[in-house]
Design brief:
Elements (H helix, E strand, L loop, with lengths): L3 E3 L12 E3 L14 E4 L15 E4 L8 E4 L2 E5 L4 H5 L11 H7 L6 H6 L2 H7 L5 H8 L3 E5 L5 E5 H4 E3 L2 E2 L6 E8 H4 L2 E8 L6 E9 L6 E6 L6 E5 L5 H9 L14 H20 L5
Parallel strand pairs: 2-4, 3-4
Antiparallel strand pairs: 1-2, 5-6, 6-11, 7-8, 7-11, 9-10, 12-13, 13-14, 14-15
Helix pairs in contact: 2-5, 8-9
GO molecular function: FAD binding; oxidoreductase activity
Protein name: Aerobic-type carbon monoxide dehydrogenase, middle subunit CoxM/CutM-like protein
Pfam families: FAD_binding_5 (PF00941)
């Protein structure tokens, strides 16, 4: 049974909202209708006008916020906060877990936002500069999506975001959890990030991973692109091959906003990719 209250009792600033579902069904999208929105941390939802919004479905009561460490890897509930992910003490043989700190600190947000913003919310916003997106794609995560009829599907993080503020979620479908495999967390890694100001939004954010005692390379490019790009190499490429693979990306994949032009971001990607290639060629030592 759902509990619905009039919007004025919820003290909302979103004046078009007439209902808030405080006790959602599981699955929460079972009674989805046009004008609905899922509420996770709300750090974006309450930050801007939402003229098409009529009803909010609060996901907090479902308790999807656990961090579960196991031999197979890490399961992250979609409602886990950025603060809790940042504070996680990961196993010592997971060097890739250092990227939790790196990615959380890439947020253009204060500690107050960290306390409310959720991992799943950042992923589902699907903005180019979403740092949780960068990390999940680089760490080869999969997402479990829960449909309105209760069925589930599992998708690769690299296939979830399709463009600026666009993803593969269907109406009423919600991100339930994220799974990061231990094999990816045991990899060495390198990253580069550029911002126009010290605490600004990412113009580009790149992460590369490599198996221990191996010569492969998995390079993820985000923030400078409208959707995540992941380039895989069975062995460390030479500088020319790496630059060629980046040059072969379609022209329309490079993001254009006040934080950088497509040409600038293309240049940064090529420059940082070569730095990363050299670092991982040296066994992970910059």
């Amino acid at each position: 049974m759902t509990e619905t209250i009039p919007a004025e009792e919820g003290h909302l600033d979103l004046h078009t909202v007439t209902e808030v579902v405080r006790q959602p069904l599981d699955p929460p999208g079972a009674q989805w209708r046009a004008g609905d929105a899922f509420l996770a941390g709300g750090t974006w939802l309450f930050s801007d006008q939402q003229p098409d919004l009529r009803r909010i479905i609060d996901l907090a009561p479902l308790g999807w916020d656990a961090l579960t460490v196991s031999e197979s890897g890490l399961e992250i509930g979609a409602m886990c906060t950025i603060r809790d992910l940042y504070a996680l003490s990961a196993p010592g043989d997971w060097p890739g877990a250092q990227l939790f700190t790196t990615s959380c600190e890439a947020f253009l947000a204060s500690f107050k936002v960290w306390n409310a913003a959720t991992v799943g919310g950042n992923i589902c916003m699907s903005l180019p500069a979403g740092p949780m997106i960068t990390m999940m794609v680089a760490l080869e995560a999969t997402y479990t999506l829960l449909s309105p009829d209760g069925s589930q599907r599992v998708v690769d993080a690299a296939d979830f975001v399709t463009g600026n503020n666009a993803n593969i979620l269907t109406p009423g479908e919600v991100l339930r959890s994220i799974d990061i495999p231990a094999t990816a967390l045991r990899k060495r890694h390198a990253h580069r990030r550029f911002t126009l100001t010290q605490l600004g939004r990412s113009s580009i954010f790149m992460i590369a991973t490599q198996h221990q005692d191996a010569d492969d390379l998995l390079l993820t490019i985000t923030a400078g692109t409208t959707r995540p790009v992941r380039l895989a190499f069975g062995a460390i490429p030479d500088a020319d091959e790496l630059a060629r693979r980046i040059d072969e990306l379609p022209d329309d994949i490079w993001f254009d906003d006040p934080n950088g032009s497509p040409d600038h971001r293309h240049h940064l990607a090529t420059h940082y990719a070569e730095e990363i290639r050299a670092e991982l060629s040296a066994g992970g030592r910059p």
